[in-house]
Amino acid sequence: xxxxxPPKMNATEQAYxxxxxxxxxxxxxxxxxxxxxxxxxxxGLSRTPIREAIGRLILEGFIERQSGYTTRVAxxxxxxxxxxxxxxxxxxxxxxxxAARLATEEDIAALRRIHAAMQADTPxxxxxxxxxxxxxxxxxxxxIVAAARSPRLTALMTxxxxxxxxxxxxxxxxxxxxxxxxxxxxELIDAIEARAPDWAASVMSAHLLAGAxxxxxRLKTAGSDDGQD
Amino acid sequence: xxxxxPPKMNATEQAYxxxxxxxxxxxxxxxxxxxxxxxxxxxGLSRTPIREAIGRLILEGFIERQSGYTTRVAxxxxxxxxxxxxxxxxxxxxxxxxAARLATEEDIAALRRIHAAMQADTPxxxxxxxxxxxxxxxxxxxxIVAAARSPRLTALMTxxxxxxxxxxxxxxxxxxxxxxxxxxxxELIDAIEARAPDWAASVMSAHLLAGAxxxxxRLKTAGSDDGQD
DNA sequence: GCGCGCTGATCTGCATGCAAAATGCAGCGT
DNA sequence: ACGCTGCATTTTGCATGCAGATCAGCGCGC
Lengths: 229, 229
What we know:
Number of helices of chain A: 9
CATH class of the largest domain in chain A: Mainly Alpha
Domain HTH gntR-type (chains A, B): 9-76
Protein name (chains A, B): DNA-binding transcriptional regulator, GntR family
Pfam families (chains A, B): FCD (PF07729), GntR (PF00392)
Oligomer: homodimer
Keywords (chains A, B): DNA-binding, Transcription, Transcription regulation
InterPro entries (chains A, B): GntR_C, TF_FadR/GntR_C, Tscrpt_reg_HTH_GntR, WH-like_DNA-bd_sf, WH_DNA-bd_sf
């Protein structure tokens, strides 16, 4: 199910995304023991890329080393999604504050470009459009963090935002949600361009709290049909 | 200079700490190109642990992949230390808020134990005492984050707090600073025990801002005698 | 004289081999 | 019947080998 769509990816990335995906979709259950050999067999790769992927997943908290030679899938609390949104709120509100002070014209132009692309895909006509929206959204947020000109934040983001995909949000946005999200993005750009850090931070906070609320509402109703890609 | 003190460490950790140390002390200069072969020669290890260390250092932002086969030491902005303290403030204030709600009796007992050990070493009589203080301090903060019961936060912390050691702060604390820091710690424990999230967060904020101010003051005066160990 | 393509050297990504450490199971002793 | 010790197996950590990609310097053409 995840084999053919991204054609160009080196073995380590394949291993990383493959294992992570298997954890998120539940193919690898919480607490299950992992061995490099089995994973390398399952994914058709050698142990080296598997090792590197496992190392990263341990750093990110998806996998835990118990003692010596025992490695297990981590156990996730039920408030995982809420946690991710809270942490993103901390990091991204701060980032956008800095971005409002430090963003260059190029940064702002890039944001506008991404925003335009997202508008063109709203409402999304097919699955591919959803895919593009999700990726553009990530790119948008990543661009803001990059505009904050802090290598530390960027490094944190590659951990935290990747994690945020735990809940592949965009595929469950209603059109109303999507439009609101787009409006937030537009307002964020305006606030950055106006060099108004507090304005930008407030919008970002609303943006992420809205996202969190949507996920929370969804988790309350449905609990079964996840794991769609 | 970093070879004999920690006797038990596997090759990957050795590589990680070795390279990171060489970057922090300036032995590897900003922008310098790195090759696995040279590093493995320098550190007397094979390429495999070097590769894994490089991978982690890239995630943490110490090293950058330029294009294809070119890997360089990252370039650090001058406000690096300030950045680290700001990010820690975001993450740790939030952590201690959660800790104030979720900490167990064991967590609080552990904090008290660490605190007592730090008091016993204050004022520090020798270099070893400084070392112990630094480590106990890290352990204290890590314990608080762990008490927040959020794997995400913990994962973030292993990136962000490790980074914070960029500035090996404790060796430049005056006795007054040390006492204030200890008082903060004591107050943090009390606030957590009293289940007072906002109180705890405020103290943590003060604690880290005080630390940041100290570093800032130091960077303003001295700029030469760093790189001690 | 200067730019461009080409070739050799270098470097990374990945696979595999090997030794040491850990696991777990069976047989022994109590 | 139960716990413990010892051994076979498994698993990781690290080293090394190899192929493809990249880089750097040279010669050729303009």
